[in-house]
């Protein structure tokens, strides 16, 4: 089963909109993500419905942040994109006849439910601003390394 990358993509877009482009069209975002503008509009619609972005049609239009990244948690983005399944593992059949499979499925369901609850709770404690700060640190480190490499190359 392929991974669902909508959440990481939307986090990526939110940080770019905050740090680099104040307003971006669906076409601009689609080029950045390597996808179709229709897919972008569908993903962004959930963020718009929750009030994190706004959209304007027509010439000069596009998507724009309506709040600070400090005010958006990963949980809120997760909910805005429709709360996709967090895990791709699960039971082999919906209603197994085998008692062994029933026992396995029951324990897997319980354990995955507990893990999902922990993960969702953790999402609620992390803001998009924290991810953006990590980006800034990585950028500074890369720039410092490039400067150091340039000095050493002489």
UniProtKB/TrEMBL annotation:
- Gene3D superfamilies per record: Winged helix-like DNA-binding domain superfamily/Winged helix DNA-binding domain
Output the InterPro entries linked to this UniProt entry.
Tscrpt_reg_Rrf2 (IPR000944), WH-like_DNA-bd_sf (IPR036388), WH_DNA-bd_sf (IPR036390)
Which protein are we looking at?
Answer: Rrf2 family transcriptional regulator
Which species expresses this protein natively? Answer: Chelativorans salis
